Amino acid sequence: MMLVPLLATVMTAATPLALAALGELVTERAGVLNLGVEGTMLVGAVVGFAVMASTGSHTLGVLAGCAAGIAMSALFAALTLPLAANQVATGLALTVFGTGLSALLGQHYTGRTVAPLPRLPLPGLLHQDVLVYASLAAAPLLAAFLQRTRAGLVLRAVGENAEAAHQLGTRVLRLRLAAVLFGGAMSGLGGAYLSLAYTPLWAEGMTAGRGWIALALTVFGAWRPWRVLGGAYLFGGIEVGGLYLQGSGALHVPPQLLAAIPYLATVVVLAWVSAGGAARRLAAPAALGKPFRALG
Length: 296
What we know:
The protein has helices at 3-29, 37-55, 58-80, 87-105, 130-148, 150-160, 162-167, 172-198, 210-220, 225-248, 255-274, 278-281; strands at residues 119-120, 128-129.
């Protein structure tokens, strides 16, 4: 039956999107807009692959991808939090930097392959690797954190009104730093998944715009973990379903058009939000993208 392998492929296609988008969701819930997800994913992918190729350890490769993501997000945080640099410009610069850095670091690994992450069978479920299961578990865990814990409520308060939270004694910059680093770790993890599991090799620019899709998913999912996860599976299904129909001969359209569909959807979502009013209707964090300066 073709449905089971098709569903398994959709899950693997959706996992890097889900990991990066859920990390960006936490970052944006704290009021920080990091457009450097694409560059962070690329650096996570190449560092994770390089460590795996050098050591033969999947665990070290995954941890290295996370660490690379944290390092990239720490650079972003250093410029945007204490120095209050423009978050949009800094995020775009981070993507450009990450793209170039990953190409430099990966020049000796291009075309090499590694053994993919081993799959862990669970009774009654599809056989998937640990990061697929982790992405599925991340959505309910983040939903519970944001809705049911004091720390999650404080984080949301900072994303709505950083000045008011500061007056109540919240260390806004410290909390935003933690959120940015978490988002970077998840983006690095998503990148490492691409090079260690989805296509276990390194190729320059292998994220192919998935970081931008992850950014759109946070909006598409209205900054709610379950909706973001569902959006990741929707986009993964569009990507895999189009290729499946093309391969089966049931759909006769240029493959380039099918490959462009997820990115066209991304452009539509971002254009709709930027048109005005959409962000308010989706309950976007009120302080999103606004720098914070403690006045007292």
